Amino acid sequence: MKSKLTKFAQVAGISLALVFTFSTTLAINVAYGAEAKAISIVKEGRFKGCPLGTVEELVNASMEKPKWSHSVGKNGVDYVTVKGLVIIAKPMDGVLQVWVKNDGFGIQSLELDKNPKTDLEVALFVNQACDATRKAKIKAQEAEDAKKKEELSKVRAIPAEPINDTRDGKKYKTVKIGSQTWMAENLNIKTGKSVCYSNKEDNCKKYGRLYDWATAMGIDPKYNKEKWGGSNVKLQGICPAGWHLPTKEELDKLTEVAGGKNLAGKYLKATSSWENYDGNTANGEDKFGFSALPGGNADYEGEDEGKDFFGFWNLDSDGNWWSASESSIYGAVEWSMKYDREGVNWYDPYKSKLFSIRCVKD
Length: 362
Hints:
Layout: E1 13-22, H1 34-44, H2 55-62, E2 64-72, E3 78-87, E4 93-101, E5 104-112, E6 115-116, H3 119-152, E7 157-164, E8 171-177, E9 180-183, E10 194-195, H4 201-207, E11 210-211, H5 213-217, E12 243-244, H6 248-257, H7 264-268, E13 297-304, E14 307-313, E15 318-326, E16 332-338, E17 345-347, E18 353-354, E19 360-361
Parallel strand pairs: 1-4
Antiparallel strand pairs: 1-3, 2-3, 4-5, 5-6, 7-8, 8-9, 10-11, 12-19, 13-14, 13-18, 15-16, 16-17
């Protein structure tokens, strides 16, 4: 019996043997590591009907102590079999056979206690498997978040001495988070191609200025459209003396210390100024005194009668900060927080865009 379904499933309570059938066009030679290669291909594969995880992840969510093996049939077809115990209403021996051809996978047949199952029964099996895998992933994420929260309770944020920028006399609050010392405000020095949001000075006083990448780095503006390729290690850029524009790795470190990618935004955002969404506050807890603000961003749109002209976006909903890490000829790494998310994200926008800056101490 062949099923036309192209989904894989996981069920709790069945002792399963999953058999993956390869097209003979793979021509795997056992003498040259075919077993490891075939098993690896299956483990790393994904089924179209359940793309939320790899086959290995689906199997691990389905079975206790799964055992993988490889064999070659009389017809020359390679088989990968995985056996394990999955708990459902009662234990049953099962065999799920999946064909693999080129990059496509599909369920060929399903037997439980040597009884072939209909397409409808296979569909139910698939849906249960995907749902169980989804729940397993949620549980794993909750466990990871709980671990991060426990680690957070051990992190100490210590207000540090304010710094005085001798270039214009402005003072900035600072804070030590873990082993790093950060400015607790966005940089606000007028230099290069920088601008206040909507060209209003009051926005600069609250959110700091917005800078294109080359200006932030303190390098020739031509590198907004060319590959720079220089060293970004403790590169001062336009930061005050003794401070530098952070690399992606330094922002990664801050992110991990502040709760990880999924929670750092919540703990680093300021307790005010973030736009509400769906009736809920988007403000953060500011657990470390970092006070991240949603300063928005800008695009340089050319000159008009000799004056720079900008388009402005997302004040009070997005916070965007440049890193010193170049990603391509035209792009660099941006660290971002949004009003409707508790985490942080990384993007690689055009270097010509204008974002905020947070400096880190040398």
